[in-house]
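quick one before i forget lol
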Amino acid sequence: MRPGLFEDILSLTAEHSVLVLIAMAFALAIGLSLGILLTRQPALRRWALGFANVMQTIPSLALFGFLIPITHIGKPTAIIALVLYALLPILRNTLTGILGVDAAVRESAIAMGMTSRQLLLQVELPLAAPVILAGVRVATVTTIGTATIAAAIGGGGLGVFIFRGIASVDTTEILAGAVPAALLALLSDGGLSWIEKRFTPA
């Protein structure tokens, strides 16, 4: 084990986590807002979901290649790509969760005099929360894995170890990136799974 490796692991793990958190914050803001909008505007669903599907279908390195001429090499390009990859599960589950609210419950709320905003915040979103959180969970775990490839375009994170280890045929370096990334994914999945269960009615 080379000197300073443990400190480098901590530093790049922190950098990786920040990259994922920023990307997920943007993906949540866009995915939730757009998902809510699509429940009110059915005509836009096909196009929005189609775009999100296409973005997730494009291989990560190819997507980086498309973005680099516009946003150049570095963290901003990595974050944009990660947001595009995280968008589909959040958008799709937000739409599915809200549309899945029982019509009778919705009608009862309207009969009680609730406004559209109150209906959304007090009825639809709370009832759709387990489905939405399932989408967030999938998006988060996927983003942690995809973020390792961001190192290829100067995005930093644990992928730095992996690419450096591959270049030098150094198993220790590869594992220094792969193991913390896997642990991050497992911890995030477990934590979000616990939160999801808390929101799921017994």
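fyi Helices lie at 5-40, 45-57, 60-71, 75-99, 103-111, 116-146, 159-168, 171-199.
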